[in-house]
Amino acid sequence: MSPVRTMARGRSRSASVTKSRRRRWLWLGAAALLGIGVAVGISRIDFEKALREITLPLRHDDIIRQQAADKNIDPALIAGVIYAESRFRDNQESDAGALGLMQITPQTADVIAHLSGGTQFVTGDLSDPEINIRYGSYYLRYLLDRYDGNEVAALAAYNAGPGNVDSWGGAQLDLDSIQFQKTRAYVEQVLEKRKEYRDKYADDLGLAH
Fold first, then answer.
1. Residue 59 phi, psi dihedral angles, 5° rounding
2. Which of 62, 106, 100 is nearest to 81 (CA)?
3. What would you measure as the largest C-alpha separation in the chain, in angstroms?
4. Which residues contact 60 (CB under 8 A, 6 or more apart)?
5. Domain locations along the chain
6. What is the dihedral of CA 43, 83, 145, 72, to 10 degrees?
7. Following CA atoms 158, 163, 169, 175 in sequence, which dihedral angle do they give, to the nearest 10 degrees?
8. Which residues make beta-bridge pairs with 99?
9. Whose CA is closest to 70, among 136, 120, 153?
10. pLDDT for 48-62, tens place per residue?
11. Does residue 47 surpass a pLDDT of 70?
12. Which residues participate in catalysis according to the annotation?
């Protein structure tokens, strides 16, 4: 065999090995990039979920859905009220003695128990998420009916009491007519959070997209 042919064959084998190694490194690089991409994707999803749970928490969505269906209320509205009242902290208690997720006072709870036919009410029951959301949803439904479905009036009454809302315009109340700045801010916050819950937790709250 001629030296020229031998050298050509050697160069061909060397080139083939080089190409094989290059393909192998390309495949390893692609696999590594894919792995990094998947890891980054997962971490981003986890981060976004964790951030959402901090900035817009949702707990007891099964109870909220059940009570919303039973009382014919938008579940996102109930979630918005809970957010404004307690940020979904079960053991929340205000200086005025309001308790639980929807911040119900014992006096209001007694009224709700009387209106709904409930018996043997105990103040400690308001720390129970199911009872608290059931009472709060009942009271919210009562206020919506009282003010002909006017959500601004109902929410203002939930915060400042029906007596104030009646003096501000009752069923005709709008945001600009709310005379307490704190109550106006409360109503605006609930309505804003209602939109966010509808957007971020539609599936959890059983809402159609």
1. -130, 160
2. 100
3. 112
4. 88, 101, 129, 130, 133
5. 1-55, 61-200
6. 30
7. -30
8. 93, 104
9. 136
10. 666 666 689 999 999
11. no
12. 85
Q: Three-class SS string for the chain?
A: CCHHHHHHHHHHHHHHHHHHHHHHHHHHHHHHHHHHHHHHHHHHHHHHHHHHHHHCCCCCHHHHHHHHHHHCCCHHHHHHHHHHHHCCCCCCECCCCCECCCCECHHHHHHHHHHHCCCCCCHHHHHCHHHHHHHHHHHHHHHHHHCCCCHHHHHHHHHHCHHHHHHHCHHHCCHHHCCCHHHHHHHHHHHHHHHHHHHHCCCCCCCCC
Exposure string of 166-179, with b = 16+ CB inside 10 Å and e = fewer, is: eebbeeebeeeebe
**Residue 169 confidence (pLDDT):** 97
Report the C-alpha gap between 125 and 110 in whole angstroms: 12
Does the domain at residues 61-200 carry the CATH identifier 1.10.530.10?
A: yes
For residue 117, pLDDT over 60 is answered with yes
- Per the confidence metrics, is the pTM higher than 0.90? no
The pLDDT confidence band at residue 10, using thresholds 50, 70 and 90, is very low
**For residue 121, what are its two tokens?**
């009410």
Q: Supply the mean pLDDT for the chain.
A: 84
Radius of gyration of the chain (CA): 30
